Structures are given as structure tokens and as C-alpha cells.
């Protein structure tokens, strides 16, 4: 039990506990702010999966962009949604929450069952990657390799994503504009 | 090293939490947050498998693409929610029944 595993399970606990708070809290503002904590903890888990660049991108885009957008949308429609929140009965296993809890627990059980069945360390592509030393180590610097791959091997998906982002920009501005005869 | 299965269990738990949020919540913004939670769980999965691909970096590159696509989807969905609020004065998906036949 070294310090690495302790930090990993601490981060996992924070991610799951704050995610449960996001899901169960009746207060919209609290759940939005708790979502910050969840995203930071999941970014820490990405670091433990040796994907530091993805973790940084998560912090920049999700925490910096998406959550600010969520907060803006909440502020622009807050009063109605806060009044609507009061009527929801609390309690994890109240009548309208019980089917959802059963469905999600069954799904979790199914996923965990599948993960227990498979022996991941002996899958063919993982053993071949280990044999060829194709495994990212803790001391490796992956960002340079990611940049080279983005500009050579994954150039077509990158261009498609950029075109999609342009379409989203134009489309969002078009939908959000004030209509003259509404 | 952390074994691969532990990442998968954590991402399965996060995914189930997101599913629970999507089913129970009565607020479009919170449903969107549930979807984001599910997307984060799938990124954790794909990145954990991406450790075994040092040369091509497939897992990490597509994790980046998923983050970008999720951000674009959130932008469009929030614009649609704002428009919905302007028209029908609610963001509860159960009460927006204008398209019901």
C-alpha cells in the first residue's frame, strides 16, 4: 500500500461521492458546484491512467468552459427552476425514484459482472502490446507524440471535428438570436 | 501500477450515477449534467485502455475528440434550453408537450 494507490482511491472516492451528491441533491446550485469537484477528481484519475494531456484538456474545457455555460444557463432560468425543485419529494427510494435506482443498479451490476468475467491482463492485443514494449510508462512524455499523431495519423478526424465546431458556432448563434415576430 | 479493472469499476459506477440522474431529474440542465457524467465515465474508460498504445495514442487522441464534441453538444443544448424557456417558461421536459399529437 504505497502513496500512489492511497491517492488513487482517495480521488476515486471523491469522484464517486461528489457524483452521488450531484445526482441526489435537491438544490440545483449546489449540484452544479459539486460537479466542479467531480470533474477535477476525474481529471486526477486521468493522470493516474497516464493521460496527463487529456487531464489538462478536461480542466481547461470542462471546468473552464462547460461549467461556466451551465452556470449561465442556470442564472438565466433560475427562478422557475428553483420553484419547481421544491415540489420534488426527497429520499433516495421514494416512489418515483425506485425504478430508476433499480435500473441503474442493475446496469452497474451487469457492467461489474462483465468486468469480473474478462481477464484483461491476458487479452491478445494487450499481451502483444506488452511484448512489443508499446506501453506508456510513468516517465514518458506523451504530449509530443500526441501532437505528431494528431497532425499525421488522425488528421481527417481532426478536420472533421473542426468543421463540426464551426457548424456548432454558426448554429448556436442562429438558434439563440432573438426572433422578430415571436 | 493501478490495475486496469479498477478504472473500469469506477467508470461503471460513474456511468450508473449519470443514468440515474437522467431518469430521475425533472430539470433539463440537470439531465445535461447526467449526460456529462456518463461522457466522463466513458472517457475514463477509453483513456485507461489507451495506456497500452504508446505509438499511436489512439485512446488519448479520441479522448480529446470526445471532450471537444461534448463541449459542442453542451453549447447547443444550452441554447436550445434557453430558447425553450423563452417560449414555454419552463425547463421541465415533462411539461413541454407542444409536439404531442
TrEMBL record, chain A:
Major enzyme class: translocase
Keywords of this entry: Cell membrane, Membrane, NAD, Quinone, Transmembrane, Transmembrane helix
Entry EC number(s): 7.1.1.-
Transmembrane segments: 6-24, 31-49, 55-77, 98-118, 154-176
GO cellular component: plasma membrane
Subcellular location: Cell membrane
Stated family: Belongs to the complex I subunit 6 family.
Protein name: NADH-quinone oxidoreductase subunit J
Automatic annotation (TrEMBL), chain B:
UniProt topology in membrane: Multi-pass membrane protein
Family annotation (InterPro entries): NADH_UbQ_OxRdtase_chain4L/K, NUOK/Mnh_C1-like
Top-tier EC class: translocase
A GO cellular component annotation in the UniProt record: NADH dehydrogenase complex
Main location (coarse class): membrane
Pfam families, A to Z: Oxidored_q2 (PF00420)
EC number per UniProt: 7.1.1.-
Any one Gene Ontology BP term: ATP synthesis coupled electron transport
Reactions catalysed, as given in the entry: a quinone + NADH + 5 H(+)(in) = a quinol + NAD(+) + 4 H(+)(out)
Transmembrane segments: 6-24, 31-49, 61-85
Location of the protein in the cell: Cell membrane; Membrane
PANTHER family per record: NADH-UBIQUINONE OXIDOREDUCTASE CHAIN 4L (PTHR11434:SF16), NADH-UBIQUINONE OXIDOREDUCTASE SUBUNIT ND4L (PTHR11434)
Family statement: Belongs to the complex I subunit 4L family.
Subunit structure: NDH-1 is composed of 14 different subunits. Subunits NuoA, H, J, K, L, M, N constitute the membrane sector of the complex.
Function (record text): NDH-1 shuttles electrons from NADH, via FMN and iron-sulfur (Fe-S) centers, to quinones in the respiratory chain. The immediate electron acceptor for the enzyme in this species is believed to be a menaquinone. Couples the redox reaction to proton translocation (for every two electrons transferred, four hydrogen ions are translocated across the cytoplasmic membrane), and thus conserves the redox energy in a proton gradient. NDH-1 shuttles electrons from NADH, via FMN and iron-sulfur (Fe-S) centers, to quinones in the respiratory chain. The immediate electron acceptor for the enzyme in this species is believed to be ubiquinone. Couples the redox reaction to proton translocation (for every two electrons transferred, four hydrogen ions are translocated across the cytoplasmic membrane), and thus conserves the redox energy in a proton gradient.
Name of the protein described by the UniProt record: NADH-quinone oxidoreductase subunit K
Gene field: nuoK
Amino acid at each position: 500500500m504505497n502513496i500512489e494507490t492511497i491517492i488513487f482511491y482517495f480521488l476515486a472516492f471523491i469522484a464517486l461521492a461528489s457524483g452521488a451528491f450531484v445526482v441526489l441533491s435537491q438544490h440545483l446550485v449546489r449540484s452544479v458546484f459539486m460537479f466542479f469537484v467531480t470533474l477535477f477528481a476525474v481529471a486526477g484519475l486521468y493522470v493516474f491512467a497516464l493521460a496527463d494531456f487529456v487531464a489538462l484538456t478536461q480542466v481547461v474545457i470542462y471546468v473552464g468552459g462547460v461549467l461556466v455555460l451551465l452556470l449561465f444557463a442556470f442564472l438565466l432560468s433560475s427562478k422557475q427552476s428553483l420553484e419547481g425543485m421544491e415540489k420534488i419529494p426527497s429520499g433516495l427510494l421514494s416512489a418515483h425514484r425506485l425504478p430508476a435506482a433499480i435500473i441503474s443498479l442493475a446496469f452497474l451490476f451487469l457492467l461489474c459482472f462483465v468486468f469480473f468475467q474478462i481477464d484483461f491482463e491476458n487479452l491478445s492485443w494487450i499481451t502483444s502490446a506488452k511484448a512489443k514494449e508499446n506501453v506508456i510508462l510513468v516517465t514518458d512524455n506523451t504530449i509530443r507524440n500526441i501532437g505528431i499523431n494528431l497532425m499525421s495519423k488522425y488528421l481527417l478526424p481532426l478536420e472533421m471535428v473542426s468543421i463540426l465546431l464551426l457548424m456548432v458556432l454558426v448554429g448556436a448563434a442562429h438558434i439563440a438570436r432573438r426572433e422578430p415576430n415571436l | 501500477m493501478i490495475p486496469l479493472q479498477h478504472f473500469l469499476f469506477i467508470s461503471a459506477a460513474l456511468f450508473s450515477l449519470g443514468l440515474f440522474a437522467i431518469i430521475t431529474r425533472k430539470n433539463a440542465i440537470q439531465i445535461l449534467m447526467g449526460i456529462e457524467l456518463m461522457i466522463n465515465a466513458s472517457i475514463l474508460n477509453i483513456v485507461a485502455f489507451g495506456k497500452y498504445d504508446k505509438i499511436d495514442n489512439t485512446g488519448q487522441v479520441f479522448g480529446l475528440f470526445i471532450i471537444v464534441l461534448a463541449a459542442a453538444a453542451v453549447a447547443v443544448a444550452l441554447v436550445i434550453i434557453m430558447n425553450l424557456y423563452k417560449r414555454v417558461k419552463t425547463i421541465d421536459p415533462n411539461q413541454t408537450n407542444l409536439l404531442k399529437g
